[in-house]
Amino acid sequence: MREKEELVMVTPGEVLGKASELKAGRGAYVATHNNTVYASLTGRRSLNPPPSDSPDKVPPPSDSPDKRPTVEVTGHKAHGAVPVPGSIVIARVAKVMARMASADIMCVGSKSVREKFSGIIRHQDIRATEIDKVDMHSSFRPGDIVRASILSLGDARAYYLSTAKNELGVVSAESTAGATMVPISWTEMQCPLTGQIEQRKVAKV
Amino acid sequence: MEAKPSNSPKSFIDQSVAPGDVVLDLSSMANQTIKLGGGLRQDCDSISVMKSGKLRFVKPNKYWVESSQKRYVPCVGDNVLGIVVDSKADNFLVDIKGPALAFLPVLAFEGGTRRNIPKFEMGTLLYVRVVKANTGMNPELSCTDATGKAAEYGPLKDSYMFESSTGLARLLLSSPTCPVLEALGKKLSFEIAIGLNGRVWVHADSPSSVILVSNAIMNSESLSEVQQKIMVDKLLQRVQ
């Protein structure tokens, strides 16, 4: 709940206050060498004091010794969705290799992304059972659309994705004949034109 | 050699076909299960050709197109000759004349453990077996047969390797023995390794034998049986 909304524009690197007085929220960070809170985005600064002085608002839990207000910077440009660990994303498989598949993240939740995010699905994260007997070629093929969840921010190159749940996996795939396939079980999809069955790790809709 | 079951008035079996030719009409063949091999494609009721070559048929129901190219498409179970291009922590990168480099796991040798990893230099010629060949992924190789024994797989040392088309490699490997190899084998002693990717390795005691065998094989793809024998005889006469 906001109490004060200031129309102060800040730029990255601008000092917002001391770490002893403020807590860094989204768009701000604490530099440990001199304990100052700096902004990391261009946008509006907003302070959210903990509502300890307003009895009709619900106080934040487990924050009792910390009475510092939180400072946040909201970007002035509306930016697209950014993948966050735990969110469900839709990605298109770009490459399938022996021990992992790389995918381009297209949507986070229900919003499409504005810039390119890469994800990697490792062979142990494809399904929950029998992970040492996973065959990459019978789980994904290049061009498949998969629903996955973000495990972590991963390394510098890509997010780590996982499809190890029933409702995660291939949502839409094209057969070698070029038609969109119909899922028939959690491991197989069938082409409507030729009747060929291909193996995928199918998401349970 | 015309085919026994003529399914249409103009049968394409054992004829040269080009991409786009419709070779079978399924509406005229009722209640048959047909197996289509490489180079053929089903478009609802008609079977059309995708690759140029000769249409082949084997009873009871297998059709495929046989063609000869310089490019090799990796297929599971093929024995090929590969050249080591690079070595990484877990596998060697081997060039087998396909669309992508193939991986040869460092442990895929008989009695292979982390302690006795073979050291192959760049350019080593290997006789290997294709284990996995999926489209879009790098093929996987192995230097053992299916049971885990070494069985002739491994590096080929010394001597001479030349490249030919895939059709010639299949011809040399056909049984009964190809006439060229039979004629050469009667007069010369040599060792030969044929890869289905078009690479052939020839080893003999003297360089002139190696050159003779290689030239004879390279010339023999388009010749008929009798012509091959005549060619080999002429070459042998020049040497002896």
What's a quick, concise take on this entry?
With 205 residues, chain A is mainly beta. Chain A contains no helices and 16 strands. Chain A has strands at residues 4-10, 15-18, 23-24, 28-31, 36-39, 43-48, 70-75, 88-96, 100-108, 111-122, 145-152, 159-162, 169-172, 182-183, 188-190, 197-199.
Sum up the structure in keywords:
heterodimer, A: 205 residues, mainly beta, OB fold (Dihydrolipoamide Acetyltransferase, E2P), 2 domains, five-stranded mixed β-barrel, four-stranded mixed beta sheet, B: 240 residues, alpha+beta, Ribosomal Protein S8, Chain: A, domain 1, 3 domains, six-stranded antiparallel beta sheet, 16 strands, 19% helix, 30% strand, disordered N terminus
CATH topology call of the largest domain in chain B: Ribosomal Protein S8, Chain: A, domain 1
- Percent strand of chain B equals 25-35%
Shape of chain B: flat
CATH class of the largest domain in chain A: Mainly Beta
Q: How many structural domains are formed by the residues of chain A? A: 2
Judged by helices, strands and strand pairing, the structural class of chain A is: mainly beta
CATH architecture of the largest domain in chain A: Beta Barrel
Keywords (chain B): Cytoplasm, Exosome, Nucleus, RNA-binding, rRNA processing
Organism (chain B): Actinidia chinensis var. chinensis (Chinese soft-hair kiwi)
GO molecular function (chain B): RNA binding
Domain Exosome complex exonuclease Rrp40 N-terminal (chain B): 34-71
Structure, described:
The complex is a heterodimer of chains A (205) and B (240). Chain A contains no helices and 16 strands. Chain A is mainly beta and 205 residues long. Chain A has 2 domains: 2-74, RNA polymerase II/Efflux pump adaptor protein, barrel-sandwich hybrid domain (OB fold (Dihydrolipoamide Acetyltransferase, E2P)); 88-171, OB fold (Dihydrolipoamide Acetyltransferase, E2P) (Beta Barrel). In chain A, the strands form 4 sheets. Chain A has a 5-stranded mixed beta barrel. A 4-stranded mixed β-sheet of chain A has the order 1-6-7-3, with no helix packed on it. In chain A, strand 14 (182-183) and strand 15 form a beta hairpin. Residues 53-60 of chain A have low confidence and may be disordered. Chain B has 240 residues and is an alpha+beta fold. In chain B, 19% of the residues lie in helices and 30% in strands. Chain B has 4 helices and 16 strands. In chain B, the strands form 4 sheets. In chain B, strands 8, 9, 10, 11, 12 and 13 form a 6-stranded antiparallel β-sheet that branches. The interface between A and B is small, with 9 and 8 residues.
